[in-house]
Amino acid sequence: xxxxxxxxxxxxxxxxxxxxxxxxxxxxxxxxxxxxxxxxxxxxxxxxxxxxxxxxxxxxxxxxxxxxxxxxxxxxxxxxxxxxxxxxxxxxxxxxxxxxxxxxxxxxxxxxxxxxxxxxxxxxxxxxxxxxxxxxxxxxxxxxxxxxxxxxxxxxxxxxxxxxxxxxxxxxxxxxxxxxxxxxxxxxxxxxxxxxxxxxxxxxxxxxxxxxxxxxxxxxxxxxxxxxxxxxxxxxxxxxxxxxxxxxxxxxxxxxxxxxxxxxxxxxxxxxxxxxxxxxxxxxxxxxxxxxxxxxxxxxxxxxxxxxxxxxxxxxxxxxxxxx
Length: 324
Ligand code: PBG
Known about the structure:
39% of the residues lie in helices and 17% in strands. The chain has helices at residues 15-21, 58-70, 98-109, 140-157, 171-181, 202-208, 228-240, 254-263, 274-285, 291-305, 315-321, and strands at 31-38, 44-46, 54-57, 75-81, 114-119, 132-134, 137-139, 161-164, 190-195, 244-248, 268-271, 309-311. The strands form 2 sheets. Strands 1, 2, 3, 4, 5, 8, 9, 10, 11 and 12 form a 10-stranded mixed β-sheet that branches. A two-stranded antiparallel sheet has the order 6-7. α2 packs across α3 (98-109), α3 (98-109) packs parallel to α4 and α4 (140-157) crosses α5 (171-181). It starts with 14 loop residues before the first helix and ends with a helix. Ligand PBG is lined by residues 118, 120, 122, 130, 165, 201, 204-205, 217, 273-274.
């Protein structure tokens, strides 16, 4: 009998060996936790479609952020859910808007936590689109102006990084210019650079009450079949001044994460979005899969594909279980 000389199983025989030859490590340092902030006091309201995720009022999220920081999660990203919405999304750049108050209060309680803000209009507009609407179409340039002012108001509130998620053309450049002109030249931008019009955002829109009232987001977010176009989107954002490029969603788009890693030197982030999270949690609740293992596998595979940072609703749970 002739045996192969090369036996790949030799290095899989024990946990110790597997640990030694492990090519990808998931660390607490890689994690960014998304948080939903609502009006009111004493609110810690579970999101039905996202088991383990809550909507927090400002007074409550402060303690949650301290807990998360103590677990070693370096960063959170805030999504504001205002009680009043209008056509232009006035709440988005209000000095005392929901996110602006949350940033100020969280930074007081957890000065070392990196507090990022999602910059978009969809949670603040009554029509639920990510920009200014005229005749049922989303206007690019007027939307960009509003987004730049929104980013500036987050900066003034003390955000450590702004993350535009709207997918208007030219918004990163406009935000960079506005920040620079107002003394925030050092504030980094993480752009949702390759963001697809995905069905996996369903639970988020529930949580954020941001489902478009008419139409969908396909006229501004990317079309899922397109791969080369993602490189153009990311290159454009980089040239406009993005410091970190994000791919979203993550699991169904690992080829895009891998392309991004190969093409650019900046840190790459990937967003394991609400639908990707809830699918695992829902199947686990039914006893169909081991939810903890599946979650960890999903996130490490996102890193293996080339992401440096992973936005995940499981960040705090995971930080409790990771070694370092
Ligand atoms: C806002 C925004 C969305 C998500 C992040 N920022 C929703 C959307 O584009 O409809 C989705 C996040 C998730 O599903 O977890 N534009």
